[in-house]
Amino acid sequence: MRVIGIDLSGPSNHKDTVLTVFELQNGQLNFMKLMRNIGDLDILKEIEAQSQIDEVVIGIDAPLSYQDGGGDRLGDKQLRQFIVSLGMKPGSIMPPTFNRMVYLTLRGIKLSREIGNLTSSYPISIVEVHPGAVIGSRLIQEELEYVLSYKQSLSARSWIRNWLGEQKLTKLPVFIDEESHLIDACAAALGSWYWKDSSLQPKWSLPANPPLHPYDYCC
User: Fold this and answer.
1) How many whole angstroms separate alpha carbon 71 and alpha carbon 51?
2) What InterPro entries has UniProt attached to this entry (predicted)?
3) How far does the chain reach from its first CA to its final CA, in angstroms?
4) Which of 47, 49, 112, 151 has the most CB atoms lying inside 10 A of its own CB?
């Protein structure tokens, strides 16, 4: 199985878009490649290529639906409550139609639908993930400071890079601590692996509710 983690940004912000590819082997995710500064076509081509080789699971850090009428989806409310209960900040989860989120939501919805139209030899499945929650929900209380500061702090990102290795993400390049988008793409892969692998389970998840919310949401 190939596990792909995508940290998406708005349609005009290719430089902060990161895609990671891992191969699941012997109960661990082996790092294969990382792509950054990429557009939608680059993402679609990579997913299509991987899906000719093996089953593909994709964790996307972006809203893949929005609440009809605006505001929070049920998943946004519940996940926000969950991360606050862990000691994390509520502001990292915003409504998909919020001003700062709307272009990211647009890209997430468009890209997920385009992935669904790809011609693949093996199955492709998609889940919406929240990388910060993926990390924070797996830390003990004394370690929580790292997830609260990794967006700003290189030392926190370096710690999380090593921690990801302890979560069985192997062969990670040293440079993934350079910026938070690289960490987030790896954490998105970790979250989607726990969602898909029947021997594991996510720390929090909400099932899809079609037709308006067609994808599971997890961390």
Assistant:
1) 35
2) DUF429
3) 19
4) 47
